[in-house]
Recover the amino acids of this structure.
């Protein structure tokens, strides 16, 4: 029962933080050397981890982690990302543009978070004052 609980907790933490790795408990026992025979597999046979066949988190998960890590406003980041990618909505942007945006945002957040926050705040909708 304790092992099942540990596995469940590890799985929940992995999904919450977008980590595509297993915990040791989930790997099971290792095969003996006589049982181990490496097999060539094509990429289509690999299990999908967080929506990715290469074990890396999806772009959406990478962006979410970045937003959490640097305590950014997700709605403002989304607006900035759409402008950066040159699209009306982020979902319309190409994968390459989104990857480029994530790299840009990560670099900027580390280098000068205050300037990044200032840029993001420029996307805050202004409220009209009715007199």
């Amino acid at each position: 029962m304790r092992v099942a609980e540990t596995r469940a907790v590890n799985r929940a933490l992995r999904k919450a933080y977008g980590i595509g790795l297993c915990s040791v408990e989930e790997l099971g026992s290792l095969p003996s050397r006589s049982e181990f025979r490496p097999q060539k597999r094509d990429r289509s046979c690999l299990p999908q981890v967080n929506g990715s066949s290469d074990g890396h988190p999806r772009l959406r998960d990478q962006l979410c982690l970045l937003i959490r890590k640097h305590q950014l406003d997700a709605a403002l980041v989304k607006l900035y990302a759409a402008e950066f990618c040159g699209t009306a909505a982020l979902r319309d942007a190409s994968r390459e543009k989104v990857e480029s945006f994530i790299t840009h945002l990560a670099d900027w957040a580390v280098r000068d978070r205050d300037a990044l926050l200032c840029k993001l705040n420029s996307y805050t909708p202004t409220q009209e004052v009715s007199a």
Remarks:
- The two ends are 65 Å apart (CA to CA).
